[in-house]
Amino acid sequence: MVILVNRIIRLALVFSLLHTAESSAWEQIRCIAPMNKGLKKHWKTMVYKPVIDPVTIPEGSPQYFAILEALDRMNRNPSNFRYEFGGMDNNDGIAANNGESEISMQDLGPDFSKNSAVESSDSDYSPTCTATESDIVINTHYRMNRPPNDSNKLSVSKTKNQLFAYGGSYASLVSTVMHELGHSAGLHHECDVLNLMGGNNLLTANGNEFEPYIGEDAATGLITLFGRSVSALEDVSLSHWRYGDKLAAKDGSIFSIHHRTRVFDSNKNELKTVCPYINSDLDGPPISNCPEPVYRVVKGQPVNIELTYENAGKTTPVSIEARYYLSNDNKIDQSDTLIKTRTYSIKRDGKPSTFTTTLIIPKAVISSRDYWLGCVIKLSQKNLIESNEADNRTYVGIKVD
Ligand SMILES: [Ca+2]
Ligand SMILES: [Ca+2]
Ligand SMILES: [Ca+2]
Ligand SMILES: [Ca+2]
Ligand SMILES: [Zn+2]
Prior knowledge:
By secondary structure, the protein is α/β, with parallel strands linked by helices.
């Protein structure tokens, strides 16, 4: 088992050290052995069908269901590449390059305490960089510095405030596995746009719940690599996250870091926040005081709300209707006060659309009270069907002076 783990780690490190950024959006993994150096990882068949290790991930466990959820969410991608569950492994052991794609949980040790999971593929041993196998190891030694100290920081919780991104102490296991499943298909780390293959979980949120999603960039990459599926559905999404920065990982690869979207005044200056919000640092202390930005506004003020609109579906461009609301809570729905309706055309081009919309703070709001601005999007064309509408709504906090 130790030898196996060392081999996987070496592969992960070698990959990371030699890959370089090549473009402004999704990137494809390249092989690095002397016999296949520079060739792009590609699959013989367009299906990834892993088995789950029953020893470390028992059937029916929360981790088992999280992996099934990740496979299901990735399988909604609009390309011909399919993600299917291959059942439980038959106890013939878990190993790289053994002819079986396997998902397991292992303690990768202190050197990998900042890595939530690793993926390795037999494409590395192929003269043509052809993949027939991809193993995913979920690390039980993921120990970012937030308390509780020296505990694993991957969570199956469905509650938003458990997550790093919302002041908590954990990464979403579902989103983490989705990222590895992106590697399985051949997608490499991407540092130029908001995307699944970056350094943060890719999430939308409404109320106290969150939705892991594949996003426009990874969906665009899969279509380019595997073609668009004739049976694909649409999926637009709305998020209060945007592309923020690049982060060089210890192993040499570069991630994108995601920041919250903002609210500006009519001169495009970012409004002041009620408390000093800082972008979530996974290695920093937990954030109890100001886990999310809350912007100070006045009655009747024109403000510009920034949000990210993505198209990860079959059709491009798609027309969407965006309905903007004022809400008494952080859950945006049709019962809230509608303050504006706009129509946009959203392209699926690997560059998520982050832009602002002018809203007027209603004069009827009550001073010193917390409110939320929010938006719900839906496809304008009634004949187009979405694979997921739970990722179509989100909020931004405001307080009226
Ligand atoms: Ca096996
Ligand atoms: Ca294997
Ligand atoms: Ca509401
Ligand atoms: Ca959607
Ligand atoms: Zn990765």
